[in-house]
Amino acid sequence: MKKYSNENNNSIPFVKIKYTMKKSLLLLFIITISLKLSAQKFYFPPAYYTDSIALEKNIPVLASQVIMAYKEENKLSYYDNLSRYQIVAKQYQQAIQTINLYRAVLNESGGSDTLTAKGIAFQFETYASAKILQQDKSSSFIEIYKNNFDNYYLDLSQSAKDITPNMLTYNVSQGKYLFYGLLRKLANSDSISLNDARALCRSYNSYNIYRQIFPFLQTYFAAQDQKEFIIQDSVLITMRDGVKLAAVIVRSRKATIPQPVVMMSNIYYSPYEVAKGKFVVHKGFAFVMLNTRGKYLSDAAIEPFEHDANDAYDAIDWISRQSWCNGKIGMYGGSYLGFTQWAAVKNLHPALKTIVPQVAVAAGIDYPMHNGVFMSYMLRWIHYVANNKLTDRADESEFNDTKKWNATFIKWYTAGNSFRSLDTVEGRPNFIFQRWLQHPAYDSYWKSMTPQKEEFAKINIPVLTITGYFDDDQRGAFYYFNRHHLYNKNADHYLVIGPWNHGGAQSHGYSTAGYTLDAAGNISIDDIVFQWFNYILKDSSKPAILKDKINYEVMGTNQWKHVPTLAKLNNDTLIFYLSNTAVENKYYQLQTKQPAVKYSIDQNINFMDRSDSMDMNDVRNSDDYPILDSTIDTRNYLKFISAPLAKPIEITGSFAGEIITSINKKDVDINVQLYELQPDGKYFQLSSYITRASYTKDKSKRQLLQPFKEENIPINNSFFVSKKLSAGSRIIVLAGINKNRDWEVNYGTGKNVSDENINDGKVPLEIKWFNNSVIKIPVWKY
Fold first, then answer.
1. Rounded to the nearest 5°, which phi and psi values hold at 12?
2. What are the helix and strand counts (H, E) for the chain?
3. Which of 47, 170, 518, 718 has the least CB density, counted as fewest CB within 10 Å?
């Protein structure tokens, strides 16, 4: 649910370059051209778009100029954007070629498979193809498009057909509003920037295509649906307290007997739900999408997390009594939809036979605070789900506006305001945000949402948990996995974990932020999910990947491993202690022997300094911090390095240990990060641990530190990873303070952290890192 990010350091490697005069002049020319392109302006006065005729004449010229100037390293983004600019420029054959390049890159990165990928950008491909045909025929465009579309569609695989109805999620009226809104913003100038020109062409492409083809698409897919499905998109189900929740139900028109039902409980209502239902029906099940309380047609307030346990039970009870249900119900979905499954089993209904939570949020554990630390992202997400009963493109546009949200968090952070004021700084005071801040501990408010001790003990249905090494909600998924096994010794609970991020572990494992998957990690998550449903709900065979209870891909080996318990993951442990021995003038040494003499490494943190407000997101305009990068952030951290590894070694699991420290305050937020420094000089992000010291021993009760007293802070909930490290690699440990715009700032007064502000930080933090602090890394030695 949250994209954790680190910040970049300010160091720039010095490169000594020797040029001849000709090479120097060439370099100067390249730099000059690059600067011109980056600051390029395009002549596009209001007269060019005073009416539709002028716009249709001039915007293809603008798109042609954009194509000449546009550059981007990310091939997926580049081909995606380029194909749209080419269509606007009427370069239709080139656009089709670019779309196919986009699909090829998507396949290579693991984002799709060859057959399914043909359904991606299908609306743009069929439009461009029809435009090419129109040049040779006298028929109207829409007639050519209709005939052309039918030929293309019938040739698709079923998996590709399953995603083509997503074309109907576009709102033509809203698209028109957004496009002309962009034009209005540009009306005061005769020239526009490259970024504005790109946005204008991309918006025009979608609006111009859909205004022509949308009526046909609606009619076409309605006819297809009538043949195959029974669709009820506005069913109201009454809960025990009288509140009505809306549901979308999709069933096969050909089904002659009651079927098992696949259910999702979803806070992100959108028209895509019907398309998801068709996909599930093609897998052989009836489908119910329950929209959570307050969403879509529900007559209640939107209050995330608070009612899902009871509501899911009541909805399952209603479904189980329908004539088309055979009494077997399974649930799946990711992130918040993973949470709703665990909420549903707090009081297990007899008809619920299995759950498949993917990247599941654990309310109060890893979101909206992680190990006791509230995250700025929570406000961004609250607005996304609670501003509207629908999740429309305006909501998505605001939610995905990283630049806007980064600016908001920077404004709050640099001003030094209390975290409680973040919603006011953003400009929209929010009652949900304020309610959550009233519960900084894992108290009864959060505990009421998901199973606790004896409730976990009663969960006797099969469970399949799916998460990824780079999934921001991985620790939520593991919280449920570990608690289920702790309180139910016979838990029938499987785990699949691979080198995926939050999105990849919900769809098709794909490359993430600089790291390219092994081929073994490039798998369809949906295939695993529905193999599981066939296994549990239809008595079919178990998914082949589930050779044991814990199934994980070891990055760098291109193979999956399978063990019965977490304890069987490793056969050794790397143990490191912090030392003050300097290495290469920029690190301290990680020692492998327990120190004979005790001493500390001292660090001072100036809370008044806000020069660390900028981070990698601002440079890359992305929420994904690179997994593999040439630099890492070292501000607010001490840096420790191991000796080079003599042999390859496999790290698998969550690093643990204990930080021995003393501070001059009553509390502190600790951040420990683990990297591999590869022989090629690049850093590979392995794991991290963020915690509030006062909650490390008991999440439900704050226990303040005593100033200047030595304290033991356990490392007990770091991110799980599995990777083969090559000989010559070195382990990097960053130990420091979590102080940046992405989290509330703990000034250490002992007051409610959300109420502290920069005035509480006038006295710098003095922290001692004692050399008997220990880092334990679970490994498998070959």
1. -125, 120
2. 23, 28
3. 47
